[in-house]
Amino acid sequence: MAEMTYRQALHDTLREELLRDENVFLIGEEIGRFEGSYKITAGLLQEFGPKRVVDTPICENGFVGLAIGAAMLGLRPIVEIMTINFIALAMDEIVNHAAKIYYMFGGQCPVPLVIRTPGGGGQQLSATHSQNLEVWFAHVPGLKVVAPSTPADARGLLRTAVRDDNPVLFLENLALYNTRGEVPEGDYTIPFGKAQVMKEGRDLTIISYSRMAVVALDVARRLEQERQLSIEVVDVRSLRPLDHETIVNSVKKTNRAIIFEEDWRSYGVGAELVATIQEEAFDYLDAPIQRVAGAEVPLPYSKPLEQAALPSARQLVEAVDRLAIRKRRIVYA
Amino acid sequence: METRQQRKAAAQGAGPGDARSSASLLEGTDRETLLNYYYQMVLIRYFEEKAGEMYTRARIGGYCHLNLGEEATVVGFCAGLEPDDYVYTNYREHGYAICRGISPAVVMAELFGKKTGCSLGRGGSMHLFDIKRRFMGGYGIVGGQLPLAVGAAFALAYRGAREIVACQMGDGTTNGGPFHESLNLAKLYRLPVVFLIVNNQYGMGTRVDQGSAVPDLYRKACAYDMRSERVDGTDVLAVLEAVRTAARIAREEREPSLIEAVSYRFRGHSVVDPDRYRPEEEVRRWRERDPILLYAARLKEAGLMDDAKRQELEARAQQEVEEAVRFAEESEFPSVDELYDFVYAGEGGR
Q1: Which residue of A has its CA nearest to B158?
Q2: Which of A60, A73, A146 is the best residue to mutate to test the B interface, defined by the most B CB atoms within 10 Å of its own CB?
Q3: pLDDT at res. B4
Q4: What residues contact A235, with CB distance under 8 A and at least 6 apart?
Q5: A109 touches chain B (CB under 8 A)
Q6: What is the ipTM of this complex?
Q7: Is B344 within a domain?
Q8: Whole-model pTM?
Q9: Which CATH class, in words, describes the domain spanning A2-183?
């Protein structure tokens, strides 16, 4: 184990995968000479040269499509989209091509591709630079979508993504890059489709992913100390494939659930999680499942407005209160 | 297949610009190869006429876009490449698939949605594929195949391979972003790719000059300092020569090219299109320049194909198409148990 930032974990994993497999290359805007908008790829152009670290012009659909075509011939591209907001420009190549090629052509040609991109708000980047669009991709069969919340998961899931034979959307978060954590050394991988119980508990389950999972864990620990509430925190980590078992088993144990997500509430990741829970654990629920999500507005610039729009620890505590009140009623009944 | 009038018109060398540009190729190529081009052209003609018929008989579903009228462009394009080169096309690709070596039977089976089809019945008319023959797919979103072709060329350059990529598209594609992004990337990275615009003069119902501020489509390459030329798409040897030259330059010099083949489709955009937007006179004029008749006349004039030989080739092509239909009819549909196969590579099902 070594302690490092989320950024360092990503950087080191990219470097190790470049060293491990000649077919792996990095491609994206400003990842080489500029060393990446968020410096994930710092130093890699210098070490591996322009063949393996490819700077592109500003043309997301073009270079994502290029990566898909290269993957069709057996290379293993790792694309960086500077932020997830720009991925809208590449939707045709991702949804109509990367996700379809293996199926539509009868299993003749896999597309081993990773698209890394950070989402998330809170940096006063306003409406077009602060979104959480992962649900667009999680909706599409043929894609895989993972969203690590810790440096260890960033490393383990990125390794798995690079070695997977399918197109993988690897979702990072701007506010996580400087977070620190213990990271296992060696050839450490995490299988897709495995949620992580970050903290065990008995009274209720908070289900989350990416940055909101970190906030949820913090809130759960605080409420345990302050109010002796025993809260289980499940980090979904992998949105597609989704680990039904871990999520449903947790709710069966605690009988209460809150979904805590940074994306918009309507049709969001939480909607899928709620549906899954009611399908598979309906009789175990003691209260309606709560959703705490982003306000349904284009994220505003002004600090107070931005903070009001983002899902917060305070809103999560309020949701816990709503469920805990119900619990007390049942206990006293 | 054609009227006597059309045959006569072709024999008289109707239409501008034909014959001369590719005269030397006619002399420099052996007879068998030249006759094979003719065979492939009539094979496509019969195949597509049959596909149209099978569509109206509900054997084929979805959209169905035919290469009728474009046979010279299709055959010239495919013949200008080497067998191990990679080909990407759009959705009007039956002929390309056949010319790259996928049997008409397997293509017809795909159109029928059968499990013996070249995409195992998952793709249909717009999504033919054969990895062994490096036919890398027909694609249904206009422009979608261009970045993929550029990426395949990137992979070849990455490995220092000798093969190249050839990418076909329609005229309407040149008005969209993927065209411009792809040309820029191909030139910027010096990738071994040949782009072919099949300018059949209409993107669905939109005439080229109604959709493109620059109707001379080959000129668009100048924005990327890319070599480009326009060829007569009704002249199989002219297309072949242009593609072969571009392929050599891609292979040896790692320089991409853009070729515009001016062609015409004899029917509507797809089988169901009643084709009301093209003046009758225009359609008639172009039908007189039927690429098959033009080529037949040239072969005859050069003493390479008499009427008996021609009839023999046409009969053989017709028979191959009949066999293709029989194969497609007799093949089974994929089992619904296999619905979830191929969603993900490396693992069965979901």
Answers
A1: A51
A2: A73
A3: 45
A4: A149, A153, A195, A196, A197, A198, A208, A209, A213
A5: yes
A6: 0.95
A7: no
A8: 0.95
A9: alpha beta
